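re: that chain from earlier
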Amino acid sequence: MLTVPDAGGHYGPYGGRYVPEVLMAPLEELEQAYLQAKNDAAFQAELADLLKNYVGRPTPLYFAKRLSEKFGGARIYLKREDLLHTGAHKINNALGQALLAKRMGKQRIIAETGAGQHGVATATACALLGLQCRVYMGEEDMRRQEPNVFRMRLLGAEVYSVTNGSRTLKDAISEAMRDWVTNVDETYYLLGSALGAHPYPSMVSDFHRCIGDEARRQILEAEGRLPDLAIACVGGGSNAIGLFRAFLADSEVALVGVEAGGRGKKTGDHAARFSGGAPGVLHGAYSYLLQDEDGQVALTHSISAGLDYALIGPEHAYLHDLGRATYVDCDDASALAAAVELSRTEGIIPALESSHAVAEALDRAPQSKGKIIVVNLSGRGDKDINIYRENLKEMDADTHSRMF
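^ sequence. v structure.
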């Protein structure tokens, strides 16, 4: 398990490189450049310095005392990636890849974004390093995440509205790949999650493994032992694999990924790939994919733009089949309720993506007396304030009367 991926970027049967012929050479060039940078002490020192002094690592591992007491049983810790510069874990990967692009002599960066956090992180890294930046974003996601659209533009990025398909993350990735095929000589595609063609899944996972490495060290310092559960939300899967990486060899640590259960089990109403999908190819990788009865990529839904995607990262598919990680789903209403609970109990407003993981922790805590749960809080909820406002009005009369 610990030797994956193989030389072809496969995690068991998953992953690989399913792309047009024109992208094979650029991907091989990227792989070689990354392997050299990975073993270059100067590159790693520059990245480590920026992560510490610009991004704000290490992030705290916070013991949520009041939340733990209220839900009785488990001791719940929150890995505070929401406290990073730009407000989410995405900056770890964006900064790493932007440094790599500059090292490769690429001055034009393209990216895609769903919830906007990867777009903001990419725009930030490009501004810092003096690189041209274009971000592809679905029209629907631009509406849902308007504050992040403004932030990207303020940082100097061009935000390109994608108006075809479901106008969400899947379509933004497709447009970014079309751009890359057309402008591959001078353009670097800064992919935002642990998916896509090899070497992106392993490279993105490497840039995020600092999350789990820090959490492992911090929980040992705080509790003198490893956690019983490590929980993270899973869209493409970057924050989850960043947390899981440090605990893969520790069989006593249960790893739980939380997908978007959306508004129901019907195809098109959720983004739960493991309960509703089957293996297939999308955006260069083979993994669990939501498909309709004709085998076409199915529409998805989640209240959280960052989880609203039809494919899961290939390393998660591999861990699922091995039984090393368990994947569950959380519906929109439960995620909203968990966000309210965390806000009022600990004074932390989480991103909607993170709220799915918090909901799972709160569900398990009462039956986990004496156990330790670590939840990765992947981002902060500022970007989701309008969505919270719109949807909490429909939750229940008591919540509504107290908030509005």
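The longest strand covers residues 254-262.
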